[in-house]
From TrEMBL:
Superkingdom in the source lineage: Archaea
Record's protein name: Uncharacterized protein
TM region positions: 7-28
Keyword annotations: Membrane, Transmembrane, Transmembrane helix
Segments of this protein annotated with the region Disordered: 36-60
Length: 60
């Protein structure tokens, strides 16, 4: 019984570590999206792509 408890603890440690890595990566990704929307970056509304000028020269 003692050995099964050790295996269970190791399993929980591995699963907890993977969950922490996944959650942390999403938190970093979210904060990087916030940094993308700074006023001087030229991006509007959270879009990564910049607008291409229209061929006729008019603004959208």
């Amino acid at each position: 019984m003692g050995r099964m408890g050790g295996v269970a603890r190791l399993f929980i440690l591995i699963v907890g570590g993977l969950v922490a890595i996944i959650v942390g990566s999403f938190m970093i990704r979210g904060s990087m999206h916030l940094w993308d929307n700074e006023p001087g970056s030229g991006l509007k509304g959270g879009s990564r792509r910049q607008k291409r000028p229209r061929p006729d020269g008019k603004d959208n």
